[in-house]
Specification:
Blueprint: E1 2-8, E2 16-24, E3 27-33, E4 43-45, E5 49-53, E6 55-60, H1 77-90, H2 93-109, E7 112-119, H3 126-129, E8 134-141, H4 146-160, E9 167-173, H5 181-188, E10 195-198, H6 202-210, H7 214-221, H8 233-239, E11 248-251, H9 257-265, E12 269-272, H10 274-279, H11 287-292, E13 297-299, H12 312-322, H13 328-335, H14 337-342, E14 360-364, H15 372-377, E15 384-387, E16 390-393
Parallel strand pairs: 1-4, 1-5, 6-7, 7-8, 8-9, 10-11, 11-12, 12-13
Antiparallel strand pairs: 1-2, 2-3, 5-14, 14-15, 15-16
Helix pairs in contact: 12-13
The structure holds zinc ion.
Residues 59, 61, 118, 197, 250, 302 line the site of zinc ion.
Amino acid sequence: MILKAPYIVTMEGPVLKDHAIWVEGEKIVRIAPQKEFSKNGEIVDFPNTILLPGLINCHCHSELSQLPESLPYPGSFVLWIDQLTRLKLQMSPTDTEAGIKTGIQKLLEGGTTTVADHMSIGTDLKPLLDSPLEGIIYIEILGVEKQRAENFYQQALKIQKTKDDKFKIIPTPHAPYSLLPEIFAAVASTDQPLSIHIAESAEEFLLFQENAGPLFEFLQLKGKTPPANKETPVHYLERLGLFPDRCMVIHGNYLEDADMTIVSRRKASVVHCPGSHAYFEQDRFPLGFFLDAEINVALGTDSLASNETLSMLRQMQMALKNYSELTPESVLKMATVHGAKALLRENEIGTLKAGKLANIIGVPFRNAGRSAYDNILLSEIACFSMIRGIVARGIC
Ligand SMILES: [Zn+2]
């Protein structure tokens, strides 16, 4: 199939005008001026459209896309966890499956082609495995009581044996405060990129820093023993030798200078979720510090339990609005090139280039007075989506 468009943003160089992308099987074979392609083969013309790399959503929980009621922020992270746990218990497997299917449609609409999706033990992976999307399914391991944590880990190892061509399945620790260190160590002993909620909330910071606050009290009430050292969440993991190399730090909202050094030394990426960040009314995300420290920052949506949308196009708009350091081009880089780096898949995805997977989306070029990057950032919906050479969503 040959895809022709007036504008192609490859993220490998300047915007290409009147070029075409030749896709064979699941890969891109060649990108060249349209006139160099003969009339042979299936040619699809996209007038007034920009083709660009599929967006990489580095953090999502698609299983939370159909909660029985909307979840207004109750004013505290701990109250939110409590509320979410209660609502999840009310959901039947059919509700969860319907939620995942809703989530998949919303992800595709918003430009995601690759997703790093967290799933709980017991959730059926089939709706996601059967979807057009590709990426990583992270099986979340929780538990600060040994038997419970060990049990979850063993179940996750069984789920990991599921064979799939498009998704890797990786057990991952949920967060530093929610998993017993010895099981954390076992889960983290892998060369796969792990995905861990670290330094997400002020309550988590207070728990590790002061052994105080709502999260500390919540864990005590549950009969679980929080860590007894006065330190940051990042320092806690590093001190115990638990900070995995090249992992994804999900959120990373509350870090001190020394934490930045650890994140940088471990070659970790940070995943910022703009919609979820706003929902929780977190302190300002320290984007400038990460950029100064040359730490890779990618984007994610988080779930519909803490974000009004699963659109990555919308996350880019929010990030651009919030941070004067960003331009339309650099924010798109976060959702493509940086996402690929975070998932350790730079050779496969993140840019449009011969030899890479044909993960391509299209958005309308509506405003002739603005650049292609500006037009992308004005788009709410991807009118076209191809994943591994297969059309997943419409024709512009
Ligand atoms: Zn999350």
